[in-house]
Amino acid sequence: MLMDILIVLAVALEAYLLGSIDTGILVSRLVYHDDVRNHGSGAAGMTNMLRTFGKKAAAMTAAGDVLKGILAVCIGRWLFTFLSGEVFSQYLGVYLAGILAVVGHLKPLYFGFKGGKGVLVAGGAILAVQPVLFPCLFVIFLACLIPTGMVSLGSIVMAVCYPFLTLGYGLLTGLPAGDLAVTTIGAAIMAAMVFYMHRSNLQRIREGKEYRFGRKGQDKK
After folding, report:
1. How far apart, in whole angstroms, are the C-alpha atoms of residue 54 and residue 139?
2. 65: exposed, middle or buried (C-beta count within 10 Å: 0-12, 13-18, 19+)?
3. What is the rounded CA–CA span in Å between residue 130 and residue 137?
4. Average pLDDT of the residues in 181-192
């Protein structure tokens, strides 16, 4: 039992430390000799990298953020193969890793606990945990982004839909009750974190001041 607890703690630690490697901050400092958090929205995510440094910077940031979400989940899944019994659901390992990777991105240990908003990290984690749901979530994201140009709105709606899609898929595939509870609660926690980190974006959307992708001449608030 002690070994199982240590494995759970190891999963949480590796995911948080991986999540704390903030791609946007590293790219802005190493490539552009600046800190993206000093510009635009103050976040270290893809959108702020795009509006501050351009498409190349945004692409590097997106790739790094998605990759660390995938890696955290894959390592968590591997570590859970060493569990001695069936006390913990196997899904606990992947969702714990996904959640802590997002936490690391939001509050990076190496960068003064000020990072990005975690959407791409969560996307990478979802891709590793439940790849079957990723295309549906991506379509939802695009359905919000294309008509409005607001990445934040797409991210928020996608996050809200994720727990419901997870629950529906679990019921459809006949997932055992314990695993269904873990996956649904895990998805809800990830969604809640993404939603919470976008509260300032929601305020700007209500005020009509939110950044719209592809619209030139906007005031960078």
Report:
1. 24
2. buried
3. 11
4. 95
pLDDT in tens, 121-130: 999 999 999 9
Hey, CA dihedral for 208, 210, 216, 221, is it positive or negative?
positive
| 56-60, 139-143, 217-221: range with lowest mean pLDDT | 217-221
What is the amino acid identity at position 71?
L
Report DSSP letters for 176-218, one per residue.
-HHHHHHHHHHHHHHHHHHHHHTHHHHHHHHHT----TT-TT-
Taking only the tens place, the pLDDT of each residue in 89-124 is: 889 999 999 999 999 998 999 988 888 888 899 999
Phi and psi, residue 176, nearest 5°: -55, 150
pTM of the model: 0.87
Nearest Cα neighbor of 194 from 66, 72, 60, 103 is 103
Q: H or E stretch including 66?
A: helix 55-79
Amino acid, res. 14: E
The set of residues, in sequence order, having a beta carbon less than 8 Å from that of 133 and lying 6+ positions away, is 126, 162, 165, 166, 169
Q: Nearest 10 degrees: CA dihedral of 27, 73, 160, 108?
A: -40
Q: Tokens in use for 183?
A: 């996956």
Percent of the chain with pLDDT strictly greater than 70:
96
Instruction: Work out whether the CA dihedral 27, 59, 78, 160 comes out positive or negative.
Output: positive
Could you tell me how many residues make up the chain?
221
